[in-house]
Backbone:
């Protein structure tokens, strides 16, 4: 085989102890894009097993093969927890995948706030099936600091999804108590937020701490899960924090009705049944978030 | 760092197309055991992130960190689908993990049939938390060919779990129609069987074909899932085939009662709620097994 065919990329997947004791490697067809942006190293690869892959600072962010799980779960779960969301905010999500899913809902307006314009540009060009809704007139894209953006908004959004990178490096501010208080303030009085919260296999103490902190701000805090093979631990969690609505009170019927009324299609992971099942936690995860 | 500290092991994880386009690598503390048995290359490593790891022919079989998911799901799901299992058979499972879980049930007798005695020996010595029940008087271990063993038994077992390696190489016979017919014959008239059936992300056509074939033998065939981070695709499936009992008819209450009556403890993945949730399939998996 020639050298091009045997090109591999690896992510050193750190555990909570900070050690890089494992790595996932994908064989590359073509290195499509590479640039050091103002904030991070941005790469797009075409791989044999996962299609096109976006890497930021050497960490797999999204792949064409498994992106649907993450994007459907971080958007539809909070959006269906709220009975009638009109204004929706995405922090991060510059690849456009969360926006693509959210815009299946009859929202009046969705805002996407990603600090790194290069991620948006590169996704429009190289990840077209993910960044497919950037021209949707209901979407407003802001390439600016999500922390500052959040501070300036009050009682405005029905639902907020925080699609951040890992809680190390540039995104660390998106996991602070101050930021979560700003999220609370930016939500309407019955608002709902969801954020990615890493793998219970690798970051149990992070999840435990996150829930403790969010419970000091939101009356309702809960965890739900899905599977993303290219993320460290694969068994992934998101945390939902809500001012009024309990996921346990959302009926599968009502989700099915809204899906039908909105002609929502092409969901490959999410369904009304999966909404319910995703909140069912194995005992080793349940004990992490016991109040 | 010295060379020992930087010792890594990798599994080249093949996709359905037969290409090895990705690999998972773990950093090794110590190589504890290595032997070419009569059937396969057997290795035990102590790793930094997953504890002790059993590899057969270079494929991760089980690790101390994530073994509980696989072993709980392949045993408790079929055992709780049957209302009162007395005789239980494990094909494969030489590491002892399935037996450890199954013996939490009030079985009269469990049989473990693994072709490779070296796997049993090595697990007793190096994987003691997994192979912890080999001395249980209710367990009968047979190091012999599971295919032949099955042919000789009729209407004997209430539940059978097939804990095989992948459907390539030595285990291929454990996925044949002839073997499944023998499994059907070895089960009591209301018997239940479960087998591991790979990842829907990587082996969708295998799952589709398996279900088509099993439906010609068993009246009830269904799929359930869990997550094993060290298996290719991580999102893992098992197939349950049953002569009489439908998992949908099993009440969570009745599982909880049996767990309490049997004083069943230390389950980290399985619960009555997880039993139900594990049969809820994302749409992309559901369409694979649509009859």
Residues:
């Amino acid at each position: 085989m020639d050298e091009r065919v045997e090109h591999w990329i690896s992510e050193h997947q750190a555990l909570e102890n900070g050690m890089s004791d494992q790595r996932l490697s994908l064989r590359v067809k073509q290195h499509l894009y590479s640039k050091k942006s103002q904030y991070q190293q941005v790469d797009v690869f075409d791989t044999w097993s996962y299609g096109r892959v976006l890497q930021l600072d050497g960490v797999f962010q999204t792949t064409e093969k498994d992106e649907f799980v993450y994007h459907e779960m971080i958007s539809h779960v909070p959006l269906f927890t709220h009975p009638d969301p009109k204004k929706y905010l995405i922090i991060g999500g510059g690849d456009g995948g969360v926006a693509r899913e959210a815009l299946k809902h009859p929202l009046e307006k969705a805002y996407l706030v990603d600090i790194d314009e290069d991620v948006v540009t590169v996704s429009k060009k190289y990840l077209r099936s993910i960044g497919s809704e950037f021209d949707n007139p209901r979407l407003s894209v802001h390439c600016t600091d999500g922390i500052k953006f959040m501070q300036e908004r009050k009682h405005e959004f029905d639902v907020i999804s925080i699609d951040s990178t890992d809680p190390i490096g540039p995104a660390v501010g998106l996991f602070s108590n101050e930021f979560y208080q700003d999220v609370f303030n930016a939500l309407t009085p019955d608002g709902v937020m969801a954020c990615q919260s890493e793998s219970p296999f690798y970051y149990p103490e992070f999840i435990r701490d996150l829930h403790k902190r969010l419970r000091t701000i939101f009356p309702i805090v809960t965890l739900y899960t899905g599977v993303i093979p290219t993320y460290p631990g694969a068994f992934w969690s998101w945390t939902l924090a809500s001012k009024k609505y309990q996921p346990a009170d959302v009926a599968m019927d009502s989700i099915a009705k809204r899906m039908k009324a909105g002609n929502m299609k092409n969901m490959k992971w999410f369904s009304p049944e999966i909404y319910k099942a995703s909140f069912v936690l194995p005992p080793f995860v349940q004990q992490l978030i016991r109040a």
